Amino acid sequence: MSVLVYTESENGSFKKTAYEVASYAKGVADMMGTDVAAISFNANDAGDLGTYGVNRLHNVSDSKLDKFNAAAYANAIAQAAKTEGAKVVVISSSADSRYLGSLVSVHLEAGYVSNVTELPSSTDPFTVKRTVFTNKAFSNTAITTDVKLVGLSKNAYGLKENATECAVQSFEPSLTDNDFSVTVQSVDKATDKVTIADAEVVVSAGRGMKGPENWGMIEELADVLGAATACSKPVSDLGWRPHGEHVGQTGKPVASNLYIAIGISGAIQHLAGINSSKVKVVINTDPEAPFFKAADYGVVGDAFEVVPALIDKLKAFKAANA
Amino acid sequence: MKILVCISHVPDTTSKINFTDNDSQFDTSGVQFVINPNDEFGLTRAMWFKEKQGASVDVVTVGGAEVEPTLRKALAIGADTAIRVDTPAVDGYQVAKQLSAVVKDGGYDLVIAGRESIDYNGGMVPGMVAAMTGASFVNTCISLEIDGNNATAIREIDGGKETSTATLPLVIGGQKGLVEESDLRIPNMRGIMMARKKPLNVVPATDASSETNSVSFSKPEPKGAVTLVEADNLDKLIDLLHNEAKAI
Ligand SMILES: Cc1cc2nc3c(=O)[nH]c(=O)nc-3n(C[C@H](O)[C@H](O)[C@H](O)COP(=O)(O)OP(=O)(O)OC[C@H]3O[C@@H](n4cnc5c(N)ncnc54)[C@H](O)[C@@H]3O)c2cc1C
């Protein structure tokens, strides 16, 4: 029977999300008294999947699948699930996994619940907690189909070690021309930067920064913290920052450990995107800014004074704790 | 080109979210419903195709009579025909089944849906419709060009963008970026008058059960008060982040 997990990799190495979904799949497998199988595409080896409780890896080696391809990957994942007789399939909530999730669901006739934050409260009926209303609430949702597809929210479950031996075997799905009806022409990715989706720390700034020329200190603060940079919607609408950095209801959700909001008012649509971040720090001149109600820590002050001082102090802190 | 835009009827973004009936139902009292923001970008892109390249644009929603004002708004923005599939929306799968029946009946070349609706955020309807109708699919689409039977789409990926090509029929999950926000249209008086005369066809539901059901809702625990740190005492902030929050 087993629980099957789709483990994302890049250039042959597993991403952190792969270990997080593997950890979660192991948790589900323990509840159901079964083991964990994984599927990956063009992985070099099993990486640390064994550490996180994966017993078997079905690796697909195919140069046609070097670039992510939602339809082909989905078909292969569904075939692996059938080979394993998997009753539960677990994927992450990355842009790629969300892209293929609905396709896997139709292949397997598996009820799909995305944005799941916890292990099932029960496996019969199979019931999971997910976020709804853009993180303003949760729903306990039961999946009524024989096979279940779970999309795990980022950073919701964390990494849990459960060391075992992971055997690698090759897997050859049968794919058709239909699986290649969408052809990727080019990928444009800022490779040297932490992305909002992967970052543990996000430094975000809003209209309070007055203009794009003032982002130098935001980037420097992000550098010191190893953080990704983000922004509020008007900032990307004004073209001060790229659209991909816009956080919120109509932008990206952020589930980082630490979210630092500088010169952002904290409108409800912005807060919706950061509710699942763990620790929130706000720097704002206006003590009445709504963001202070959502924050854990706050500094009432001018970003143009606070941020440079904070950068200096963090550098000193890092040097002392290196 | 025949375009179908899938419209989700959702609570306005500032709505307070509450539940009734022992936390089993969303409380709609006092809630204003709007066209799902992701769908609005798609509808505007569809109008662009209609005006610049020639296309017919139908809109569709699955739901009871209460969704009709949202469909009328889409007609006032410029859609030609609205379709309401007469059944409550239960889950992503059941909605996708209903929409797929409309897509197959209408023989659409391009189906534009939003990447997710801002109520249940499932993000599954566009992909399911593509899989159920055998169309190509591009998700989180931020740019779409059509030339004859060929589409070029750009999608947002984690940390960048990806450009791909596909042949029609195509389904996209669209979002902000498909058009500029400043190009979004507000229905004007003439549009509203014309919308009254446009057809709003109510079609019966096809037989489709759901695959999931929401058993109960809950809200996040109320947050404790913020700890304020003086602007000239940032060492304190670093200490709190390091020792209390364990975030650095
Ligand atoms: C349908 C819809 C969807 C939306 N979706 C989103 C979304 O996804 N994401 C999003 O962010 N917004 C979204 N919005 C917009 C949202 O309502 C707010 O307008 C937006 O979040 C405000 O951005 P801001 O806080 O950067 O700017 P402002 O509201 O202008 O606030 C700037 C803040 O900076 C502070 N400030 C000014 N100068 C300084 C200084 N020197 N130092 C420190 N602080 C300073 C001010 O006190 C103020 O609090 C949406 C709106 C709608 C209608």
TrEMBL record, chain A:
Q: Where does FAD bind?
A: R207, G263, I264, S265, G266, A267, I268, Q269, H270, N284
> Which Gene Ontology molecular function entries are recorded, alphabetically?
electron transfer activity; flavin adenine dinucleotide binding
Question: Where in this chain does the record put each Electron transfer flavoprotein alpha/beta-subunit N-terminal domain?
Answer: 3-184
Is Electron transport there in the keyword field? yes
- Give the cofactor note: Binds 1 FAD per dimer.
The processes (GO biological process) annotated in the record are: fatty acid beta-oxidation using acyl-CoA dehydrogenase
Q: Which UniProt keywords apply?
A: Electron transport, FAD, Flavoprotein, Transport
The cofactors it requires, by name, are: FAD
Q: Which domain of life is it from?
A: Bacteria
Please give the InterPro entries that the UniProt record associates with this protein: DHS-like_NAD/FAD-binding_dom, ETF_a/b_N, ETF_a/FixB, ETF_asu_C, Rossmann-like_a/b/a_fold
| Alphabetical list of SUPFAM superfamilies matching this protein | Adenine nucleotide alpha hydrolases-like, DHS-like NAD/FAD-binding domain
| Sequence similarity | Belongs to the ETF alpha-subunit/FixB family.
Q: What is the protein name for this chain?
A: Electron transfer flavoprotein, alpha subunit
The gene for this chain is: etfA
TrEMBL record, chain B:
Its domain of life reads Bacteria
Residue ranges constituting the Electron transfer flavoprotein alpha/beta-subunit N-terminal domain according to the UniProt record: 23-212
Q: Which UniProt keywords apply?
A: Electron transport, Transport
The record, for SMART domains, names: ETF (SM00893)
Asked if the keyword Electron transport belongs to this entry, the reply reads: yes
**Family annotation (InterPro entries):** ETF_a/b_N, ETF_b, ETF_beta_N, Rossmann-like_a/b/a_fold
Q: Which Gene3D superfamilies match?
A: HUPs
Matching PANTHER family, A to Z?
ELECTRON TRANSFER FLAVOPROTEIN BETA-SUBUNIT (PTHR21294), ELECTRON TRANSFER FLAVOPROTEIN SUBUNIT BETA (PTHR21294:SF8)
Q: Which family does it belong to?
A: Belongs to the ETF beta-subunit/FixA family.
Q: What is this protein called?
A: Electron transfer flavoprotein subunit beta
